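Hey, sorry to bother you again with one of my protein questions. There's a protein on my desk that I can't quite get my head around. No rush at all, and the record is pasted right below.
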Amino acid sequence: MSCADLEGNDLELWDIYNRDRIKTGDIMVRGDPFPEGAYHLVIHVCIFNSNGEMLIQQRQPFKEGWSNLWDITVGGSATAGDSSQSAAERELLEELGYVIDLSEARPHLTVNYEYGFDDYYLIEAEVDIDSLQLQYEEVQRVKWATKDEIFQMLDSGEFIPYYEDLIGLLFETRRKLGAHSR
C-alpha cells in the first residue's frame, strides 16, 4: 500500500522496514496485522534532571492501552515519513509541549522486539514541569521520580510493566556515550 492510496484519511500510517531496518517503501495502517517480514519503528525519550530523577507521565484513564498507568517520559510510533529523531521530537512536542532538536542525535540504545525496533533517547535537562503543556488525550500528569520510586511503582502495578533491568539500564547509562545534554 502506498501513501497515495490512503491520502485524505485520518489513519495513522507507518513505514514498513525489513529486518535490517531498511525502509521497504511500503506503509501500513496502525492496528492492521503485520505482514510477514514487516517491522515498525517506535521511539521512547527519557528526560533526566541533575538530581538523577526521570520525568514520568501518567496516562489518561480513558487512554486505550495501559490506561491510568505511569510511563517513562514519552513514547510512540514513528509515522510514515518520520526519522527516529523527528518522531522523538514530535512525541515530546505533542505529549508535553517540549521542544528539542535531536537532528544530530543518535538513539542511546535500540531494543528489538517482535514487530520492530524501539529507539531510546536519553536526555539530561532541567525541565520546569509546571511549564509543560500536557496533551489532554494522552497525558494526565507528570512528575520527577527516582529509580527506586519507579521500581516501587512497577511492583505495585502503577507503572507500565517494563523489565526492571531496562529501567535500571536507562538510569545507569543516562550520562554515557549517546546521551543528549541540553
